[in-house]
Write a structure and sequence with these properties.
alpha/beta, globular, 22% helix, 4-stranded antiparallel β-sheet, Rossmann fold, 8-stranded mixed β-sheet
């Protein structure tokens, strides 16, 4: 697949049933390319489920192999630094660092160079070295460059937000539904993770609610990317037991201050075909269906994040990446900051987020009021591009930590 244009196309960590909540990367000229990973047909997914809005109509029921347009690595990092992102969203005003918390990153295939690449990332940006554990409960899988990049993004940027938290990467042997959900269960039941990041998603399917038992866990918060193909709803982001993270275009000026934040054109969003509106969204929308996303974060690859990776298609270096999959692990890391300041870990996190918005919307969120994902436009309050908006962590974290 060729680039969609010279500003943006999507490097997507594809999973079951055309999973495409993924990742975008730049080449040395600033162009953005899509690379899909080989994956067999999905397990236990209704392939005849109707698509909602415009969701991923281009995608087959399994992922494609890498395209000829491959992102170009650079010798030095480009994109926003951890210090810039921490300042933009107010994390630099938080005294805690997530110590005592475990963040789980769920990905398929993993990355054989993950630990060493994370060390380079930390050294480059002056971050403390991370406490990292990598687990293969289904056995070690074969290598996959696209998933390796996704895993590196998730780990490096979760650590940037919550450098005191322990990070566990649970690697699914393949991108099948059973293997990915098995990895989720292992993270929660065996490793005790209290915040779980899932940078993947599928077109909705009629039996999706039957899998919600994997996410309806006391004291555990789940975050999933809402997709990078514009308007449309994907699962598990659609689940009311999961916080769906959409995307923005974040502009940071030369002084470090945010000059603008708008809805990103690739941000997945819409109304679920199968889930009714949860009660905690009632204050914000008159729609009868579950609205996605719930919240948002920088996702535009043009305003993206540097990731260090070894032996990516034979080359080692830095890639500037974006996508809503960048926001899910950073929201999970923010949750680690929240839970570290609480006496008990939060349950039903989505309901807490909306409850906080009813009390302190103007101080705890950056309301995104412009930008479109093709079918929907960002508006004041909850919208189908950016949800409630992005976090002002300086206020949001302590307010959520104090919530009863």
């Amino acid at each position: 697949m060729s680039p969609t244009n010279h500003l943006r196309s999507f490097l997507i960590a594809s999973t079951l049933a055309a999973f495409s909540a993924g990742l975008s990367a730049a080449d040395k000229h600033g162009n953005y390319h899509r690379v899909d990973q080989n994956e067999g047909p999905p397990e236990n997914v209704d392939s005849h489920a109707p698509e909602t809005d415009r969701i991923h109509a281009h995608s087959p029921l399994w992922a494609r192999g890498p395209s000829s347009a491959t992102p170009q690595l650079t010798s030095g990092p480009t994109g926003y630094t951890p210090a810039q992102i921490r300042h933009a969203y107010g994390f630099d005003k938080i005294t805690g660092n997530g110590a005592g918390q475990t963040i789980a990153i769920i990905d398929a295939y993993g990355s054989p160079s993950l630990a060493n690449d994370l060390k380079v990332f930390c050294t480059t940006f002056g971050l403390p070295q991370a406490t990292l554990g990598v687990y293969y409960p289904q056995g070690k899988p074969s290598a996959n460059s696209g998933w390796a990049l996704e895993t590196s993004l998730d780990v490096q940027w979760a650590h940037a937000v919550a450098p005191g938290a322990r990070i566990v990467v649970v690697v699914a042997k393949s991108a099948s539904l059973s293997n990915l959900l098995g990895a989720v269960d292992y993270a929660v039941k065996t490793l005790g993770a209290r915040q779980v990041s899932m940078s993947w998603g599928s077109s909705e399917f009629s039996s999706e609610a039957s899998y919600d038992s994997h996410f309806n866990k006391a004291g555990v918060s789940f975050f999933a990317s809402s997709g990078d193909s514009g308007a449309g709803v994907i699962w598990p982001a659609a689940s009311p037991y999961v916080v769906a993270v959409g995307g923005t275009t974040l502009q940071i000026g030369s002084t470090g201050a945010v000059t603008s934040e708008t809805g990103w054109s690739g941000s997945g969003g819409g109304l679920s075909a199968y889930y009714a509106k949860p009660s905690w969204q009632s204050t914000f929308t008159s729609a009868t269906r579950r609205a996605v996303p719930d919240v948002s974060y920088d996702a535009d690859p043009a305003t993206g994040f540097p990731v260090y990776i070894s032996n990516y298609n034979g080359t080692t270096g830095w890639i500037q990446v974006g996508g809503t999959s960048a926001g899910a692990p950073q929201w999970a890391a923010q949750q680690a900051l929240i839970n570290a300041a609480r006496t008990t870990s939060m349950s039903s996190t989505g309901s807490y987020i909306y409850s906080d918005a009813t009390r302190a919307y103007a101080t705890d969120f950056y309301d995104i009021t412009s930008g479109s994902n093709g079918a929907y436009t960002a508006t004041p309050g909850l919208d189908l591009v950016t949800g409630l908006g992005s976090p002002n962590a300086a206020a949001f974290v302590p307010d959520m930590a104090a919530a009863k």
